[in-house]
Amino acid sequence: MSKGPGLFSDIGKKAKDLLTRDYLSDHKLSVSSVTESGLALTTSTVKKGGYSSGDVAAQYVYKNTFLDVKVDTESNISATVAITDIVPSSKTIATLKYPNYESGKMEFQYFHPHAALSAAVGLNQTPPIDLSVTLGTPTFALGAEAGYETTSGKLTKYTAAITVTKPDSCASIILGDKGDTIKVSVIHYLDQSKRSAGVGEIARKFSTNENTLSVGGSYAIDSLSLVKVKLNNHGSLGAVLQHELAGKSLVTISSEFDTKALDKTPKFGVCLAVKP
């Protein structure tokens, strides 16, 4: 476990990732390589329906500095620079985008054995401000976050959460959407490598009295293959098969369909990540 409670954005993330990550609905090919100097280059091509897009990304790490630059087929450029320990136990992150440069932001994160703080401000004339704080330990933490819009002088969001973490499980409660939704999630690991796990999540939206119950899990067939499944009370069933090839290349096959409308065409996605 980490030495502190972690950032507010980490609360409930493990359960969310197990229920959403790798469930693809498009075709993607990714090729990565690393130079002797430590520069990592990745080229990705995505085909969704009859439309194809792609991007080229470069990542470089030098001492306490991380640089990531990405250019896509529509000439959008994004760059992220992260520097650790400008102030002890901190990380400073700058995100710049072009041509949508007004969406850039500057973020400061501070970590303490019993607290974590994050503050982000937009890089424009009327910058939005996001603040979050988490208090506790690696096993128990509570936190809150808020967003403030300087143009209107109003809060755009406020969220509160609590989490309990054990070596083989994690439970979280998140009250979000300005108090309109509550989400409870539990994840339990079945092996020490944490590749096999079960997860359950229930979310309620008070304004519409709508409940969503989702269950899922992952199972490591062997050291190279992993299967994931998920199902919710609205009839959405999804499955993922991942297999590691030689050289740590990874192929991911995903399918999702509506069990209440079997006449609809299922969603199907595949991703091949090649690492020589």
Which helices and strands appear, and what pairs or packs with what?
Layout: H1 13-20, E1 27-34, E2 40-48, E3 51-62, E4 65-72, E5 77-84, E6 90-98, E7 105-112, E8 115-122, E9 128-136, E10 140-149, E11 154-166, E12 169-176, E13 181-189, E14 197-205, E15 210-220, E16 225-232, E17 236-244, E18 250-258, E19 267-274
Parallel strand pairs: 1-19
Antiparallel strand pairs: 1-2, 2-3, 3-4, 4-5, 5-6, 6-7, 7-8, 8-9, 9-10, 10-11, 11-12, 12-13, 13-14, 14-15, 15-16, 16-17, 17-18, 18-19
Give a concise summary:
GO terms for molecular function: porin activity; voltage-gated monoatomic anion channel activity. The protein is mainly beta and 276 residues long.
Structure description:
Keywords: Ion transport, Membrane, Porin, Transmembrane, Transmembrane beta strand, Transport. It comes from Erythranthe guttata (Yellow monkey flower). It is found in: Membrane. Its main location: membrane. InterPro entries: Porin_dom_sf, Porin_Euk, Porin_Euk/Tom40. The chain is mainly beta. The protein is globular. It has a 19-stranded mixed beta barrel. The chain has a single domain, classed as Porin. Helices cover 3% and strands 63% of the residues. It is built from one helix and 19 strands. A hairpin with a 3-residue loop joins strand 16 and strand 17.
